[in-house]
Amino acid sequence: MHFITALLGVYRAEIGLLILACMFVAFVRERYSPTVIAVVGACAYGIFGMLDEKAMFSVFSNSAPLTVGAMFVLSGALVRTGVIGRVADLIMTRAERHPRIALAEVALGALLLSAFLNNTPVVVLLIPIMFKLAQATGYPVKKLLIPMNVIAVLGGCLTLVGTSTNLVVAGIAADQGMDRFGIFDITLYGAAGAAAGIVALLCLSFLLPSDPPSIAGENGGTAVQDYLTELVVPQDSEDIGREIGALGLFGRSVQLLGLKRSGDIRRQGLETEELRSGDHLIVRADGAAIMTLRESGQFELGVAADSRTSAQDGTVVEAMVAPSHPSIGERLGDIPFLHALRVRIIGIHRARHLPGPDLAETRVRGADRLLVAGGDDAMRALKDNPHLIGVDISRTRAFRPRKAWIAMAAMAGAVLLSAFDVVGIGMAAVIAVGLILVTRCIDPEEAWGAIDGDTLILIFAMLAVGLALEQAGSVTLMVGWITPLMEVAPAWTLVFIVYFAALILSELLSNNAVAALLTPITIALAHQLGVEPRPLVIALMIGASACFATPIGYQTNALVYAAGDYRFADFVRIGVPINIVVGLAVCSALVLLG
What we know:
Blueprint: H1 2-10, H2 12-29, H3 34-47, H4 53-58, H5 63-80, H6 83-97, H7 99-116, H8 119-137, H9 142-156, H10 164-175, H11 187-203, E1 226-232, E2 254-261, E3 264-266, E4 280-286, H12 287-296, E5 300-301, E6 315-321, H13 336-340, E7 343-349, E8 369-374, H14 376-383, E9 388-393, H15 404-419, H16 425-438, H17 444-450, H18 453-472, H19 474-487, H20 493-508, H21 511-529, H22 533-545, H23 555-563, H24 568-593
Antiparallel strand pairs: 1-4, 1-5, 2-3, 2-4, 6-8, 6-9, 7-8
Helix pairs in contact: 2-3, 2-18, 2-19, 3-18, 5-10, 5-15, 5-16, 5-17, 5-18, 6-7, 6-8, 7-8, 7-9, 8-9, 8-23, 9-11, 9-23, 10-21, 10-22, 11-24, 15-16, 18-21, 19-21, 20-21, 20-22, 20-24, 21-22, 22-24
Keywords: Membrane, Repeat, Transmembrane, Transmembrane helix, Transport
Membrane topology: Multi-pass membrane protein
GO molecular function, one term: monoatomic cation transmembrane transporter activity
């Protein structure tokens, strides 16, 4: 025991680096998630006495991960209020008229959106849009997905809030005594990288594959569920006499399929048709759109045996039809529980196929998924029905379009407060979260669900690892090794070295882990060499994010890798030259203008 204690005293810094090396090996092997490795690594430093309890828990006072969490919530509010969906509808409308111009507009939109929103939900939103744009323009979808992802990642490098990595580096830098970063302090250098990256994409597009994906479907591999439903025009509706096309309901989320009037169904020429009392609009809609229509009360939804049963009454549950259901093959309108209970079927989903011709006439199949509205007694009876599987309250929520302006104002306010240095971005983001919660743009449970807990725990754990390396003397030891090499190199090369070191490590490891680890080392190195640390820290920020050469280089890379059915080599072929071009542009801007 005394020997171990003595060993820790003499070789404390070296043992700290040994633990770090073991973490790197574990990161590369990927047998465990990066979060698990980071947490175990922090625990190892604690076990060996390199990180005491006070120091370990001090990382939870760091503003960086809290700011990241707040930005997740703000992004979730924009989704909940329908802002993101509305933007997607506008894009698709433009694509139908001017598909090639729409491609340029999508690229610009991805760049700007990613500058202020977490770029992961931006890419998730754009993946199905790129599949539809590929159909409209005739371009192979594999030539669109990777460029869209590259532009979204470059957009995240335009502002401090564009990526969680930027916020992590800025938070650690502030803790190290540097002046606080403003939201647009990195914009000039990120813009240089974005411009170079876009030019490189245009020149190197021939390196992108053109074969069709073998696994992706119409939605690009997303899990959006579309339902068949009907919108029934009430007798006292204010929409009676209006043209269907003037309702403003239809877009990407709600598609008009037909008009049922007096038992007859029409499919063509519906835009100019005037609505009458009792008309049934047959539509295809996703779950959120159906719930939004239900809350609006503009139409009655679905079918019921009793016309007095309203879709607005009670709650909505999801239920799957069991293969043993006695009504398999019969009309949905004749299903027994529809007549035995006061419920209303407001939608039916069928995998890989939209049923029809309308809701009531749909023939029931096993595994059909139903949305059913009704009172508490009816819901309990449905749960006891042995022929229905997984009956539970629907987790799909309605959009809140009337609160959209509040969500946008909250996001814009956070950006402006930080931009004009009224308060830091962390405080501004927290204030914005308070505003959207008190105005119910998003419910609390949804707000906390929008936070990527895995990312936050990874950040906290790596902050603890970085602190342990400082306390163990490992940072000082590494700086001592590197300093003699740096002293003989021209000062301007330091920016390039830091940038490409962060880039190479981030292609293999977690971006946030690399950022948390290298930031204190970079700042200590700058002080040791007597140079201004700010350009080096900015190089670290962008270098740790702008990684395009591997599917694991950035979280959005993995999304398009799966959706587009790419090969690993596809990313290497196009990503390596883009990495080099963007890196040279950013570093040159830092050297000349920083």
